Amino acid sequence: MRFRSQIAMNVRRISCVFVITSWITFSLYYYDTIYGAIKPTIEILISANKDLTFEEILTYNGTEDDLIKTPGCYIPNYGITLKFREAKIIKHFCGTRAVFIEKISEEYLLINIDDTINEYSKGNDYNCCYQFVTPALVEGITDHRKIRYSPCAPFENQTKIELLEEIIVVKCTTKLKVVYEDAYIFVKKLKREEYDDLNHEKPWNVLILGMDTMSRARLISSMPKTAQLLRNHHWLDFRAYQKVGYNTFPNVMALLTGRNQSQVHTECHKSLDQCNDIMLWSYFKKAGYYTASGEDFLRLPDTFTRYDGFKNAPTDHYMRPFFLTGENSIGNLVCTKKRPSAHHLLDYALDFTNTYKNDKFFGMFWFNSFSHNLNNVPELIDSDLAKFFETIHTNGILNKTFILFLSDHGLRYGEMRVPYESYYEERLPMLYLWVPNNLRRRYEMFKNLLVNQSRLVTPYDMYVTLLNILEIGNNTEKTSNACPNCVSIINELSRNRTCSDAHVHEKWCSCHPLTKATNDAAIKNALDAAIDDIYDIVKNIKTKNCMQCADLKLKDVLRAHSYKASNATIFVLAFQMTPGDVSYEASVEHRGDNFTVLDTTQTISVYNTRGNCVLNPVHRAYCICVKRC
Ligand SMILES: *[C@@H]1O[C@H](CO)[C@@H](O)[C@H](O)[C@H]1NC(C)=O
Ligand SMILES: *[C@@H]1O[C@H](CO)[C@@H](O)[C@H](O)[C@H]1NC(C)=O
Ligand SMILES: *[C@@H]1O[C@H](CO)[C@@H](O)[C@H](O)[C@H]1NC(C)=O
Ligand SMILES: *[C@@H]1O[C@H](CO)[C@@H](O)[C@H](O)[C@H]1NC(C)=O
Ligand SMILES: *[C@@H]1O[C@H](CO)[C@@H](O)[C@H](O)[C@H]1NC(C)=O
Ligand SMILES: *[C@@H]1O[C@H](CO)[C@@H](O)[C@H](O)[C@H]1NC(C)=O
Ligand SMILES: *[C@@H]1O[C@H](CO)[C@@H](O)[C@H](O)[C@H]1NC(C)=O
Ligand SMILES: *[C@@H]1O[C@H](CO)[C@@H](O)[C@H](O)[C@H]1NC(C)=O
Ligand SMILES: CC(=O)N[C@H]1CO[C@H](CO)[C@@H](O)[C@@H]1O
Fold first, then answer.
1. Mean pLDDT, the chain, as a whole number?
2. Interval 345-350 mean pLDDT
3. Which of 204, 398, 400, 437 most suits a substitution to test ligand 3, by most atoms within 8 Å of the C-beta?
4. Closest of 517, 498, 493 to residue 423, by C-alpha
5. Which of 482-496, 522-536, 560-574 is predicted least confidently?
6. Which protein residue has the closest C-alpha to ligand 8 atom 5?
7. What distance in angstroms lies between residue 270's CA and the mean position of ligand 1's atoms?
8. Ligand nearest, relative to CA of residue 58
9. Residue 380, ligand 4, Cβ within 6 A
10. CA nearest to 538, candidates 490, 491, 587, 600
11. Which residues cross the membrane (predicted)?
12. For the chain, what is the radius of gyration of the CA atoms?
């Protein structure tokens, strides 16, 4: 078997055989009734094994000074002192639904018109019709970046219609005007011939739910109900999940392809379609899985809009055409017709898992609209998400499904980036993992996962882990191109693991305590290096005609911290430049007499609209545009 359960078979391990056997008996007995298989593990291991490290890991309760503390990586528990401030709630209502469509079987839908329709029609006579929405045909070729509509077919209350296409829009009109519009999406089950060529001892399903800009600390502070629910149901909580790139794209692609940004660029720059073969879901699809993907808030320049987006559906089921029916920003929300976009996404994810619960599936759904922008409020989806997880816990998929609830990074900009703790906040996205009940019974694998909650883990590791999950029972080894020595977290991860072992650039590495810098002369030198580096960037920015970037001057040093690396001191500096008041965070390495800026200094300010004259959008944060002629 592939899980390297052969790990160092040391003496202690052998003496544990008895413990393991009794653990299995014990846990099967108490299984699901008392502690969901975790508590017995803790008690037996602690009482019989006396493995203090293990005890420390399993009894971690969140009040400790550290998130993890291993020889290779110490991360302070920064969430204890960082106070999260979220946007004020101004408006959080997309509209009142009056037309409901319900799936009554795999093939049929029932339309119900609620009495509230009279409020829309103001008592006038009205007629309603529905249209199916499909990807556009451009010169005979399907293009999922655009949509087309079928002719509008009339319906009345309690009309039964056939589920011909996944996306449906309805509109109701009086003599005068359209009074009601709404949009719906359902999973239309695909039928594939059974094939089982992979000799799987047992196929595991995978569901990935990603929520943008959500650190573990932010989840606990801003979505307490969801956080509590995950704890109550014994989801694993990887406290040192470490990002590997600046924003969404590099981190999501690291998870989906195991590649770093330059490798992704090499493979994907011609178009995302061209590199779909290296995405995780394609490996699962080839193995006979049904696949789905979806992302809300399409206007963001972020996730899968790079390189012109997908023209072909990357997965069997693909939500993009649905959101193309029209998303509107209303107050703190992003709505698709009468419901928040993210609610459509949650319902579809649930529909997908229900539809294929007797087959094998891989689904990935990414939520932007409640957390990406500073005016989004995570709390507004807290109850719905908790309810979603509660439903998942009763719909029978948990025996054989891995569920990853994760993010790409923490808060990257805004006033929350002024406190020094935000250095960790930005770098540590959440990663919660549901381990299938049937795998929890397999002691070695589950024990590794438990232990690895307090190890340094990256998206590259998760890529390898998911491939590992696909191939449990198959004998092929897969690795991450960006991190060839990374292993599945179901295997052993070393306590000694450092950022460099995990292929995390020093710039993003969270594995060290920060202390307030006190050496004024060194701070000044580091600051000069950081500012010179920004001047170098500004000097080379290309702008629109008759515009140029203003000369910047230091306005204020917001904070100055440092940490020790091998034979060097790294300064972490946040400072503000004028004009424009844009702030930056730089990491500067002090080695011997040299001060060297690590990687690209990034802004920690909100979107700089005064930088709109630049030709390459990545330069916007470094330019305050002024007229030149
Ligand atoms: C958390 O664990 C620490 C020891 O690691 C202990 O001192 C403390 O009382 C615990 N707190 C709670 C609330 O359980
Ligand atoms: C539609 O039918 C349902 C069930 O018969 C009924 O409760 C509802 O009032 C009807 N809606 C309208 C607008 O008449
Ligand atoms: C999950 O597995 C347990 C133990 O094998 C079994 O009793 C239970 O019926 C399974 N649940 C579902 C929904 O398959
Ligand atoms: C499983 O192993 C076989 C033979 O080693 C290989 O052909 C197949 O591609 C593997 N499955 C996957 C999903 O990689
Ligand atoms: C990407 O990974 C390769 C292989 O590990 C490495 O040579 C290269 O420097 C990495 N590129 C970046 C931008 O990290
Ligand atoms: C971790 O580092 C310690 C001290 O350097 C060393 O004794 C130990 O063998 C290392 N463990 C592993 C698994 O590399
Ligand atoms: C640190 O400096 C010492 C003495 O100059 C040298 O022997 C050692 O190799 C250096 N270590 C690293 C990691 O550069
Ligand atoms: C400092 O920089 C100079 C010039 O780049 C280089 O030759 C020297 O080795 C560097 N010193 C240290 C300690 O890195
Ligand atoms: C990456 C990591 O820390 N893996 C660990 C996972 O758990 C096993 C079991 O304790 C450890 O041996 C690994 O080192």
1. 88
2. 98
3. 437
4. 517
5. 482-496
6. 594
7. 53
8. 1
9. no
10. 600
11. 12-31
12. 26
The per-residue pLDDT for 22 is: 36
Is-contact 45 54, C-beta < 8 A? Answer: yes
- The pLDDT tens digits of the residues spanning 100-122 come to 999 999 999 999 999 999 999 99
Residue 521 has pLDDT above 90, yes or no: yes
pLDDT tier at 451 (50, 70, 90 boundaries)? confident
Closest residue (by CA) to atom 13 of ligand 7? 566
Residue that has been written with the tokens 């794209």 in this structure: 249
Closest alpha carbon to 214 in 361, 426, 61? 426
Sequence-separated (6 or more) residues with CB below 8 Å from residue 2: 468, 471, 472, 473, 474, 475, 477
Q: Is the pLDDT of residue 50 over 80?
A: no
Q: Which two tokens stand for residue 3?
A: 């899980």
For residue 449, give the ligand nearest its CA: 9
Is residue 245 within 8 Å of 251, Cβ to Cβ? yes
In this structure, the number of other CB atoms found within 10 A of the CB of residue 399 comes to 13
Ligand 2 neighbourhood includes 117 CB (under 6 angstroms): yes
For 394-544, where are the alpha helices, taking DSSP H only? 422-427, 437-440, 443-451, 459-470, 520-539
Cβ of 198 below 6 Å from ligand 4 = yes
pTM for this structure? 0.89
Q: Quick one: which of 240, 356, 345 has its CA closest to 293?
A: 345
413 C-alpha to ligand 7 centroid (Å):
36
Say what the pLDDT of residue 196 is: 55
Tell whether ligand 2 has an atom less than 6 A from the beta carbon of residue 125.
no
Please check the confidence at residue 440 and state whether its pLDDT lies above 90: no
**pLDDT score of 53:** 55
- The pLDDT value given to residue 477: 67
Dist. CA 47–CA 532, nearest whole Å? 58
| Cα–Cα distances in angstroms (integers) from residue 513 to residues 424, 570, 572, 584, in the given order | 10, 11, 11, 20
Backbone angles phi, psi at 153, to 5 degrees: -100, 130
Pick the ligand that lies closest to the CA of residue 357.
Answer: 3
Q: How far is CA 488 from CA 208, 401, 469, in A?
A: 17, 17, 9
| Angstrom distance (rounded) from CA 455 to CA 341 | 35
Which string of b and e fits 113-149 if b means at least 16 CB within 10 Å?
beeebeebbeeeebebebbbbbbbeeeeeebbbebee
Average pLDDT over residues 136-150: 94
Which of 108, 99, 97, 104 minimizes the C-alpha distance to 156? Answer: 99
Classify residue 202 by burial, with Cβ atoms within 10 Å: 0-12, 13-18, 19+. Answer: exposed
- pLDDT for position 15: 35
Choice among 107-111, 232-236, 369-373 with the minimum mean pLDDT: 232-236
Q: Over pLDDT 70: what percentage of the chain?
A: 88
Q: What is the rounded CA–CA span in Å between residue 393 and residue 403?
A: 11
Query: What amino acid occupies position 478?
Result: K
The alpha carbon of 494 and the centre of ligand 6 are apart by a number of angstroms equal to 8
Of ligand 9's listed atoms, the one at least distance from the Cα of 495 is 3
Q: Are 230 and 432 in contact (CB under 8 A)?
A: yes
Q: Is 396 in the pocket of ligand 3 (CB under 6 A)?
A: yes
